[in-house]
Amino acid sequence: MTCIEANRLIGPWLDDELDVRSTVDVEGHVARCPACGREKEEILALRETAREKLPRFDPPPGLEERLLRSVRAEAVPRLRPARRWLREAALMAAAAAVAIVATSTVRPGADASSEIVDAHLRSLQAGHLTDVASSDQHTVKPWFQGRIDFGVPVRDFAAQGFPLIGGRLDMVDGRPVAALVYGRRQHLINVFVGPVADRDRPVRADSTRGYRVSSWAQGGLKYRLVTDVNAADADLLVALLRGP
Amino acid sequence: MPASTSLPEFEETLRAHLPAAHHLARWLTRTQADAEDALQEAVLRAFRSFDRLRPTSPRAWLLRLVRNCCYDLRKQREREGESALEEEALPPDADSPVLGMPAESPERRLLRMADARALEDALRDLLPEYREVFLLREIEGLAYKEIAEVAGVPIGTVMSRLSRARAQLRTSMVATERETA
Q1: B2 with A17: Cβ contact below 8 A
Q2: What is the rounded average pLDDT for all residues in chain B?
Q3: C-alpha distance from B138 to closest chain A C-alpha (Å)
Q4: d(CA B75, CA B29)
Q5: B residues 97-136 near A, CB within 8 Å?
Q6: Burial readout A156-195 (b: 16 or more C-beta within 10 A, e: otherwise)
Q7: What pLDDT, on a 0 to 100 scale, did the predictor assign at position B108?
Q8: Vertex A35, ends A31 and A41: CA angle to 5°?
Q9: Which of A62, A200, B93, B135 is 20 to 30 A from A231, alpha carbon to alpha carbon?
Q10: Could you state, in chain order, the average pLDDT of each consecutive group of 10 residues for chain A (244 residues)?
């Protein structure tokens, strides 16, 4: 066996991947050839350093439980029949709203806000606030996967006074959007997230029927936040959602 | 929809292989948050196909999903314009049995720490395709056949990648040692 042949096989030999015949050949060559002997020693030294000294990234506490929770949430049937009925009703309502917009001369901005407020009010009806009730962003975020065809950024802001309550699917402008629900003392805040924004847009806020609606676009997604909390609190959550 | 009867079995699989999956994800992504996102996505994908596939080697199958999710996330981060320089510094390895040994002299300890750092840096410098093969072989102890399954390449490619990874690691570690000496 030549050094070139042996050199190719030293790694697989030390990895126990050779058949008996090749093993005998390589062993014999390495025993006689100092250069190939050094090759062997270096591979073993590298292995030893890697096994003994490389940081071992153990899963942080709680990760296993979070992953298991998200799997269990996934195992629950996706849509309960009552919900499906509600969603179809919402779809029809949304279609009707679109039809009205098409034939009316109302300012489009005002009408869009009005529909968002309707969606907010619908969500306050008993039993329809959240499809997935969890303050854990690692539970809410994956819940949307497979139900909606875009990634929804989900973060909890409990530390800043806006605990995440959960998420649900909703219909706005006749298409499915993700709705994130946050709490602020006794009040509720709906954040509707949907595609598609071709470019970022700054925040625009206005009031419709006593509800504050803040709209912006960021990272390819449209955001609309609806709430009856005061303007300062609403703006605070907008700033948190938009990030630094 | 997987039947609920498979849930306990899946949970057992996940528990058994989570340390390896997390370790791989941590080495194939830039931050702990990215590693957890990739794991989360991989675990859900795994659960959705668990009943259908009934993998013969659950470890290789799960690691493959984790690996693919890590690559997806890397690509996404690259599109978002994050540069490789923003890679998160690794946390100090507090639990390392080597660093924690009290009987060591300061000089020897320093040398050992330098060694670990040199290997870490060298590994980070490798292309992820080489890095993963080295880690799966030397740390997780996977056979070539399993590595081929995880990386989705033929065994011959595993062999040549592993050989190149070892050569590159040795070269750059020797270079670092000479610099510091």
Answers
A1: no
A2: 80
A3: 6
A4: 10
A5: 97-98, 112, 115-116, 119-120, 123, 134
A6: bbeeeebebbbbbbbbbbeebbbbbbbbbeeebbbbbbbe
A7: 41
A8: 70
A9: A200
A10: 90 94 93 90 88 88 90 63 52 52 40 78 72 84 84 90 88 84 87 87 87 90 91 92 88
Q: Which residues of A touch B (CB under 8 A)?
A: 8, 11-12, 15, 17, 42-43, 46-47, 49-60, 63-64, 66-68, 70-72, 74-75, 77-78, 138, 141-142, 145-146
Between CA A181 and CA A148 the distance in angstroms is 17
Query: How many residues can be counted in chain A?
Result: 244
- Three-state SS for A36? helix
Query: In this complex, which of B35, B40, B90 lies closest to A70 when CB atoms are compared?
Result: B40
Question: Which residue type sits at B125?
Answer: D
